[in-house]
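Board notes, transcribed. Complex of a protein with dinuclear copper ion.
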Amino acid sequence: MPLTPPQPRNWWDLPLGGHEKIWLSIVVLLGLSMFVMMPVWHVFGAQNSPTETYRVSPDYYWEKATKFAAAEGGLSRKVEAGIQPTGDDVYLGALKFGWFPNVLVLEAGRRYRIHVSSKDVNHGFSIHKAGEPSQKANFQVVPGYEHVLPMTFTEAGTYDIVCQEYCGLGHQFMLGRILVERGR
Ligand code: CUA
């Protein structure tokens, strides 16, 4: 039998079918529950992005990051040794195609304020451990903005800082490292 279009009828005047009513009710309930979950999750989800952000010129931020690295003895040290901040504020800069400083040595269990900003284009800041996402961190690193991310590493180990935003031909090589050591 050939497929034929249904008889022309005024569908708007027909009563809703039983199944339609059930499915529409499910859709409305799902929508309402998601609507309610938004404020509920904001309070109880403990997954909110930190909101401490400053407008900053890329040059000014870079100066701060360089001063930070220099103050921590980072500029003269061998790269692999990393920078071991004495204070809780850590200044991390993103640029095509790397992180500055590219190796940080942090203390497990200590709460740091990780400042991130970019020198050139949009980058992404995420942290991975053994190839798996870690620290619930995946942030845009935007030139002109300084984000302050409070962060505590509970486990010692080697963490990678991975750029999660396509930023050019060297994007896939844009890796930094955080070495987390047991509390001193
Ligand atoms: Cu920086 Cu991708």
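The chain has two domains: 15-44, 53-181. The longest strand covers residues 132-141.
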